[in-house]
Write a structure and sequence with these properties.
Blueprint: E1 3-7, H1 27-43, E2 47-51, E3 67-70, E4 73-76, H2 88-96, E5 100-103, E6 115-118, E7 121-126, H3 132-144, E8 148-153, H4 160-163, E9 164-166, E10 171-174, E11 188-191, E12 202-204, E13 209-213, H5 217-221, E14 229-233, H6 236-240, E15 250-252
Parallel strand pairs: 1-2, 4-5, 7-8, 10-11, 13-14
Antiparallel strand pairs: 1-15, 3-4, 6-7, 9-10, 12-13
Bound molecules: citrulline.
C-alpha cells in the first residue's frame, strides 16, 4: 500500500525559520491547509501515518527534510539548520519499524528538500543546508541501492526542490537562474512563469495525479498537455515559511 508520513503543525509554527523577505505564518490557517493536504493524499489512496508535532521544533511539519527513502533503506538526515536537528529521531524511529535506517553523521549535513529522486538518479542540491560531506555520505548509501547521485549547486533558494520541482519522473519545473540546467540531463524542463517566481510547487503522487500550488496558475497551465491530472491546493502559510508541497510528507509507494 502506498504510505505517506506526515507530521502535525506545531503550536509554535509562527516561529518557523523564514527567509528575510518572509512573514510569520498563521498557525490556524496552516493547520487547515495541512488538513486539506492530508485529505487529498488520503483521496489518492495513501495510508497516512502522522507523527505528533513537537512544539520545541517550530519547523517540524516539514518532515521531508528529516529522512529520505532510497530503495530498501531510509536515510535519516542531519539538517543544515542546527535548530532543526532534533526533528530527526522521532521520524527515524518510526521508519525503523519498517526498514533499515542509515544516518548521516557530522560534519555532514543534508536536508531532504535538497534530494530529488527520479528513477535511479538522485539529484542532490548543494545549498546553504546541504554540504559536500553530507552529499558524499548520501552518495555511498545511494550506491548501495544501485542508484547514482548527481550534485547540483543551488543559488538564491533554500533547497533544490524549491527551484527544480518534479511533476513526473521525466519533467521538472525550474525557476530560471537558480541552477545550471545542463546538470539536469535527460529531463524535460518547463520554466516557472516569471511573474510567479517561487510560487509554484508540486507533489507528484503514485497514481500520476499531481498536487500543485494554487498560487501559480500560469505555470500550472503550461503543464497542460503532459497528460497529468493537476489538483490545485492553497498552501499560502506553508509557503510563507519557505515550504512547498513535497516538504510536508515522505511518500512510500509500497
Ligand atoms: C526551513 O527554513 O528549514 C523551513 N522554514 C522550511 C523548510 C522547507 N522544507 C522543504 O521544502 N523541504
Amino acid at each position: 500500500m502506498p504510505t505517506a508520513l506526515l507530521r502535525e503543525v506545531a503550536d509554535t509554527f509562527d516561529r518557523a525559520i523564514v527567509s528575510e523577505s518572509g512573514r510569520p505564518p498563521d498557525v490556524a490557517l496552516a493547520r487547515a491547509q495541512h488538513g486539506r493536504y492530508k485529505d487529498l493524499l488520503g483521496d489518492a489512496g495513501y495510508v497516512i501515518e502522522v507523527v505528533a508535532a513537537d512544539n520545541a521544533h517550530p519547523d517540524c511539519v516539514f518532515i521531508e527534510d528529516t529522512a529520505v527513502v532510497l530503495g530498501e533503506v531510509a536515510v535519516a538526515t542531519r539538517p543544515g539548520a542546527d535548530a532543526r536537528r532534533g526533528e530527526v529521531e522521532p521520524v527515524a524511529g518510526l521508519l525503523e519499524t519498517r526498514m533499515a535506517v542509515s544516518r548521516i553523521e557530522a560534519p555532514g549535513t543534508i536536508d531532504g528538500g535538497d534530494v530529488m529522486v527520479l528513477g535511479d538518479t538522485v539529484y542532490v542540491g548543494r545549498s546553504a543546508r546541504t554540504n559536500d560531506d553530507g552529499i558524499a555520505q548520501f552518495d555511498a548509501i545511494a550506491r548501495s541501492q544501485g542508484m547514482s547521485v548527481k550534485p547540483v549547486p543551488v543559488r538564491e533558494v533554500l533547497h533544490l526542490k524549491s527551484a527544480v520541482i518534479p511533476v513526473s519522473n521525466t519533467t521538472v519545473v525550474v525557476t530560471p537562474g537558480t541552477v545550471d540546467e545542463s546538470l539536469l540531463t535527460g529531463l524535460r524542463i518547463i520554466h516557472e512563469a516569471p511573474h510567479e517566481r517561487h510560487a509554484f510547487s508540486a507533489l507528484p503522487m503514485w497514481n500520476e495525479n499531481v498536487l500543485v500550488t494554487e498560487s501559480a496558475p500560469a505555470t500550472t497551465e503550461s503543464l497542460n498537455g503532459l497528460g497529468l491530472t493537476l489538483i490545485p491546493i492553497d498552501v499560502s502559510e506553508i509557503q510563507a515559511a519557505d515550504g512547498g508541497l513535497t516538504c510536508m510528507s515522505i511518500l512510500m509507494s509500497d
